[in-house]
């Protein structure tokens, strides 16, 4: 069993009697992180999901403020210069970032805070908050990952090739994370995440 420790921070916020925890969920594009997060939040509404900021365009059905906060590159760069992000990364030509203040406030109020972020951002979190729990989601195989990315029908051939190349690099980093879970079956993967989070 994995012992999950509260993160340490000097941020001046109210503290609750139960320590909050920062959880990082990452894995390659197309591995099913978003679907796993949606199902996890349905089962555990007490979790705080940090909505990321991005400069990419919304996909069909995505809602601003629910899936992401969609902003311009200029606005993102302004917020970045002001130190407003806990972590940030550039991926597939777009910026992604986690709002700093909201996350730290939730952790210090005793919440279990889950970040669904890219590898680069996950490494930044590990560096600043070494006691954060990090979970890496793996695909059953590269063929299955390619099938899932193509199944979304949202990317050009060039973009798919970039995502698959990046995925191979990211999978090499899986051992850096506290827990690795293969998303071969949604229910099994969810149960594995729940076992890690709630024992």
Automatic annotation (TrEMBL):
Belongs to the guanylate kinase family. It holds the Pfam family Guanylate_kin. The gene is gmk. The keyword Transferase applies. ATP binds at residues 27-34. Keywords: ATP-binding, Cytoplasm, Kinase, Nucleotide-binding, Transferase. This is Guanylate kinase. It catalyses: GMP + ATP = GDP + ADP. Coiled coil: none annotated.
């Amino acid at each position: 069993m994995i012992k999950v420790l509260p993160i340490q921070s000097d941020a001046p916020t109210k503290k609750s009697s139960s320590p909050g925890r920062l959880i990082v969920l990452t894995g390659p594009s197309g591995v099913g992180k978003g679907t796993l997060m949606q199902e996890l939040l349905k089962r555990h509404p007490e979790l705080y999901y940090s909505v990321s900021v991005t400069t990419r365009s919304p996909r069909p059905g995505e809602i601003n403020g629910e899936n992401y906060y969609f902003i311009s590159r200029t606005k993102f760069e302004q917020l970045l210069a002001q130190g407003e992000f806990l972590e940030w990364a550039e991926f597939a030509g777009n910026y992604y970032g986690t709002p700093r203040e909201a996350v730290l406030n939730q952790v210090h109020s005793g919440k279990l805070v889950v970040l669904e972020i890219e590898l680069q951002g996950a490494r930044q979190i590990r560096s600043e908050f070494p006691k954060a729990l990090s979970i890496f989601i793996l695909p059953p195989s590269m063929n299955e990952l390619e099938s899932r990315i193509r199944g979304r029908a949202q990317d050009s051939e060039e973009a798919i090739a970039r995502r698959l190349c990046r995925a191979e690099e990211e999978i090499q980093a899986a051992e850096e994370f506290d827990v690795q879970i293969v998303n071969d079956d949604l229910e099994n993967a969810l149960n594995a995440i729940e076992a890690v989070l709630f024992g």
